[in-house]
Amino acid sequence: ARAQSMEITERPAVEYEDIGGIDEQIREVREAVEQPLAEPEVFAEVGIEPPSGVLLYGPPGTGKTMLAKAVANRTDATFIKMAGSELVRKFIGEGSRLVRDLFELAREREPAIIFIDEIDAIATTRTESKTSGDAEVQRTMMQLLAEMDGFEARGEIRIIAATNRFDMLDRAILRPGRFDRLIEVPEPNQEGREQILEIHTREMNVDDDVDFESLAADTEGYSGAEIESLATEAGMFAIRNDREEVTQADFVDAFEKIENDDSSDVVASA
Ligand code: ATP
Q1: pTM for the predicted model, two decimal places
Q2: ipTM score here?
Q3: Closest to 125 measured CA to CA, from 57, 183, 174
């Protein structure tokens, strides 16, 4: 049953150089997660504990999952991904059972990185009136915290969680020894969008006239995922026009198509 809801990758195919516009966040994740896994002796010598949990927060499609995968790629750690929404179960005890399975699997595969996407699904602040469903979600979260509190003895397991809804999180999960390293992953700025465009056109046959700087300027507010769809869409226009090279005009057509489509389409393709 456990395999259905968890994604396990020995070595995810994402590298830091595939991630654009968030160099500072990469540096922080490397320090908080990669270095403790790669050089535990450094922390032992100085006599400090590395952070047990790292929380990545920011808008959808900005590279949070990529970051977690890139760390696993750089270390020998197995990448184990679970969506917070998957942990929300109907039957009593089912959610906590999944959390236990998750950590058990991580211990078997040690070193391992557990990545919990949409942590808000089990860790949002709730209203006063608790329905039984809420109580079950609460229990699942308590189980997660209990597993994290018993971490150190368990060795080389790091946990990274991600959310788009930082403001709604239950502050209990941010206490020391839990998700005590917070890293904001924002929407990319002009320079970031240029980098992301370059990354997603690396494998594309792009004409010299393509102007990344002006495309980046036009796409203010786009996430990395949306910039990726722009590049793919531009490629589609080249194919439709029977060309092997993608031109500036293709990018402009793609941009107009995306802008004119219902905005929900853009989100869906992310
Ligand atoms: P969500 O919060 O919706 O889970 P996320 O922040 O985890 O989103 P990712 O899954 O990392 O987003 O990104 C989705 C896709 O968008 C990636 O596979 C990648 O192709 C592209 N992408 C997003 N951000 C970046 C970035 N900073 N650099 C390059 N590509 C990016």
Answers
A1: 0.90
A2: 0.97
A3: 174
